[in-house]
Amino acid sequence: MAEQKKKRDGFGSKIGIIAAAAGSAIGLGNIYRFPCELGNNGGAAFLLVYLAVVIFLGIPVMLSELFIGRRSQSNSVGAFKKLAPKTAWPIVGYMGVLCGFLIFAFYSTVSGWTLEYIVKSVANSFQGKDMATLESDFAAFHNMGWRNVIWQGVFILLTGFVVFKGVQNGIEKYAKILMPVLLVILVILGIRAVTLPGAKEGLAFLFKPDFSKINAQVLISALGQGFFSLSLGMGVLITYGSYVKKSDNLTSTAFSVVLADTVIALLAGIVIFPAAFSFGVNPQAGMGLVFNTIPMIFNQMAGGYVFCIIFFVLLAIAALTSTISLLEVVVAYITEELHLNRRWSTVIACVGTMLLGCFVSLSLMENTPFTIGGRTVFDALDFITANVMLPLGGIFIVVFVGWRLGKTHFFEEVTNEGKLKSPLKTVIFFIIRYLAPLAVTVIFISGLLK
Ligand code: PHE
Description:
By secondary structure, this protein is mostly helical. The protein has 18 helices and two strands. The site of phenylalanine (PHE) has 15 residues, from helix 2, helix 3, helix 11 and helix 15.
């Protein structure tokens, strides 16, 4: 136990909490899932709801999770056991661990594609192709089911390796440098995208809201996307919060992470939609939206060959810092609650994910037998985690902080026992106690009833 404790602390001490939390938040959720959801849910109207979600719910929920983690110094299940002994609250933590496992199983599929696309861009296989060919190549790739499974397996192994070995002095340090590079590349891509012929229509789709499009489906999708993109509702931030030093400022951490995550998502939108409209891609194209549009932009850019490689490498790294956090939730739980060592915990979690992951990847083939209730296993897991489990976890987390732990504990922790000023703490606590549970519940129920 002493040894496990040491390792756990080591993970947090050498990396900035902001880098770790932003690393978890920024990933395929911003660059791949955000444009898909926005395209499928009416464009700018979705964006407005999304921004409201991240500001008014994202920040308070994130702060609640960091607070629970640092207060309890425990994994997501242990945290509830410690802070509310002999109650049913740890169920929230168990749900988070399960949710982390399920997200990892489909997230790693898309992560695997980033590896395939690195290879493709190195081989210069996008050069000179038109949109229709890129689209059919993408579809053909999905039909090579086992190729997807293998890339996914490679990505899971990579994540497992880092979680077991190198978090302290490897990846997080690089991520701190590489994520700003990703930002720069997105800006360059954005400039190219908005200057393409016909780009204006794409910008209008993104920024000119048609309020009549806001309905229950848009609300629940924006809520789910907000939670997904900020890694909320399943204990990532509880687990990471437990590694945070007592002298760190939790409130400013939450603000910085939400800001960074939102900027990257917006930039992705500014890249994808003008380009999609310019190339005649349907904004509802879903999975292909990003994977086909981006190579096409590079095709039309000086130095596109090199930029394209750099882009997919960075996308893979952004995905990796997110999968690390997903796996860390599961591994922290297994080591601390089931008392297995870190190596075996990692092996068990990775093998489990690979097994489920096979069904996820194979469910994207034409005529796949792997469907659940009419959806592919991929879509079913995406829907149930992002739109159901994360918001539900979020409700329980804010209720736990607002009603069970209460104001005094919360103020103590966010002001570092009175040593820090936290001018917004009263407003944020009000949101945590009343507004957030109410808003999430209403959106959630309206989404279920639709
Ligand atoms: N936030 C990550 C992304 O946007 C995905 C994620 C969700 C990671 C939930 C951890 C927990 O890519």
